[in-house]
Write a structure and sequence with these properties.
Shape: globular
Helix content: 25-40%
Strand order of the largest sheet: 1-8-2-3-7-4-6-5-9-10-11
Radius of gyration: 19 Å
Oligomer: single chain
Bound molecules: threonylcarbamoyladenylate, magnesium ion
Number of helices: 11
C-alpha cells in the first residue's frame, strides 16, 4: 500500500521512476500509468496495478523524434511525415521494435508502439530520464480513462506513490494509433488525429483496421472504457420514450434534455466537437456516480473527432447490451 500523493514535482516523479515505482503522468489525451520502459519488473507492476491482461501491449512514451531510432528498427517516410506534422501530439506509431525493448512492453509482438505526448510537464520529465516511459491509460483495466489527477486517484488510490498533476487533459480521448504497410497507413484506433488529417499530411491511402473479434491491438476489444451503469447510444428522444419512468442520465452533444431526464450532461453547449471530446470521459464518470438506472448517450456526426467519440461510446455501450 502507498499513500498516493498528487503534485507537480517532476524531481519526485523522476525519483520514483528511477527506483522502479509507478507514477501517473499527464498527457494531452488521458493520464498514463508510467514505469521505466526498460525495466521488466517495473513494467510488470503496471499490468498488476491495472489488472490488465498481459497480452495487451503498452505504448512507449519518448521526448522527441531522435528517440524513435533507438526503439524502432526503421522509420518509414510516412511515419516521418506524421511525426513532423502532429508531434508532440495525440498519435501513436506501431513500428518494428529494436532488440532493447523488453518483450513484456510489446506483449511478445515484434512491433512497438511509440508516442511523443504533448504536455509540458511530461515532456520536461522525459527530458530528464535515461529511459522511455511505458504507460497505458491510468485506469483500472476496462474502466473509463482518466482525464484529471483526481480521476486517477479514484481508480488507483493506495496502489501508486505519486500522481503528477498536469490539470485536465486537453484532448480527452486516447491517441490515434497507426501502422505502415508500404503506401498504406492502417488506423488501429481513432483519436485526436483524424483519418483525413493523416491523408493530408502524407498523401497516403488509409484503411480503418478497427476489427473487434480478433484484435491486433487489444484496445480494439469492445467493452473497453465502460461505465458500471448500463450505457446506450443512439437517438435520445427515442430512447427516452423506451426507458420512461427510470432514473435516466443523458449525455448530449449540445441539446438540453434537463427537463426530461434525471441528470443531463451537455458536452458542448456551443456544439463544438473538440470541446465535446474533451468533456466526454468526465461526463461518463460523473453520471456513473449519480445512482442512475441507465445512461443514454447521443450519437455524434460520424466524421473527424465525432467518429472517435462514437467509437468510445459504442465500446462503453457493449456491456450494457
Ligand atoms: O493517448 C494514449 O494513447 C494514452 C496515453 C497515456 O498515452 N495511452 C493509452 O494506452 O491509451 P492504452 O494502453 O490504454 O492503449 C494503448 C493501445 C492498446 O489498445 C494496445 O493494445 C495498443 O495501444 N498497443 C500498444 N502496443 C502495441 C503493439 N505493439 N501492437 C499493437 N497494439 C499495441
Ligand atoms: Mg486504456
Amino acid at each position: 500500500m502507498f499513500t498516493t500523493d498528487i503534485g507537480t514535482d517532476t524531481a519526485r516523479a523522476k525519483h520514483y521512476l528511477e527506483h522502479g515505482e509507478l507514477v501517473a503522468i499527464p498527457t494531452e489525451t488521458v493520464y498514463g500509468l508510467a514505469a521505466n520502459g526498460l525495466d521488466a519488473s517495473a513494467v510488470a507492476s503496471i499490468y498488476r496495478v491495472k489488472n490488465r491482461p498481459q497480452f495487451n501491449p503498452l505504448i512507449l512514451h519518448v521526448a522527441n523524434e531522435v528517440q524513435f531510432s533507438k526503439w524502432a528498427k526503421q522509420i518509414p517516410s510516412h511515419c516521418r511525415a506524421l511525426i513532423k506534422a502532429f508531434t508532440p501530439g495525440p498519435i501513436t506509431f506501431l513500428l518494428d521494435k529494436s532488440e532493447q525493448v523488453p518483450d513484456l512492453v510489446t506483449a511478445g509482438s515484434k512491433r512497438v508502439a511509440l508516442r511523443i505526448p504533448d504536455h509540458a510537464l511530461t515532456l520536461g520529465l522525459l527530458a530528464q530520464l535515461e529511459f522511455p516511459l511505458a504507460a497505458p491509460s491510468a485506469n483500472p483495466s476496462g474502466y473509463v480513462s482518466p482525464v484529471t489527477a483526481l480521476h486517477v486517484k479514484e481508480g488507483l488510490d493506495g496502489k501508486i506513490p505519486y500522481i503528477l498533476d498536469g490539470g485536465t487533459c486537453k484532448v480527452g480521448l486516447e491517441s490515434t494509433i497507426v501502422s505502415f504497410d508500404n503506401n498504406l497507413i492502417r488506423i488501429h484506433r481513432l483519436g485526436g488525429i483524424s483519418e483525413k488529417d493523416i491523408q493530408h499530411a502524407t498523401g497516403a491511402n488509409t484503411e480503418l483496421s478497427l476489427a473487434h473479434d480478433q484484435p491486433e491491438s487489444p484496445g480494439q476489444l469492445k467493452s473497453h472504457y465502460a461505465t458500471s451503469t448500463p450505457l446506450l447510444v443512439g437517438d435520445i428522444s427515442q430512447m427516452l420514450t423506451q426507458h420512461h419512468g427510470k432514473r435516466i442520465g443523458v449525455i448530449s452533444f449540445y441539446r438540453d434534455y434537463s427537463q426530461v431526464s434525471t441528470v443531463n450532461y451537455v458536452l458542448s453547449p456551443q456544439g463544438d466537437v473538440t470541446e465535446a471530446a474533451s468533456s466526454l470521459f468526465s461526463a461518463m464518470r460523473e453520471l456513473d456516480r449519480s445512482q442512475l438506472d441507465i445512461i443514454l448517450a447521443e450519437s455524434f456526426p460520424d466524421e473527424g473527432l465525432g467518429k472517435a467519440i462514437n467509437d468510445r461510446l459504442n465500446r462503453a455501450a457493449f456491456s450494457a447490451q
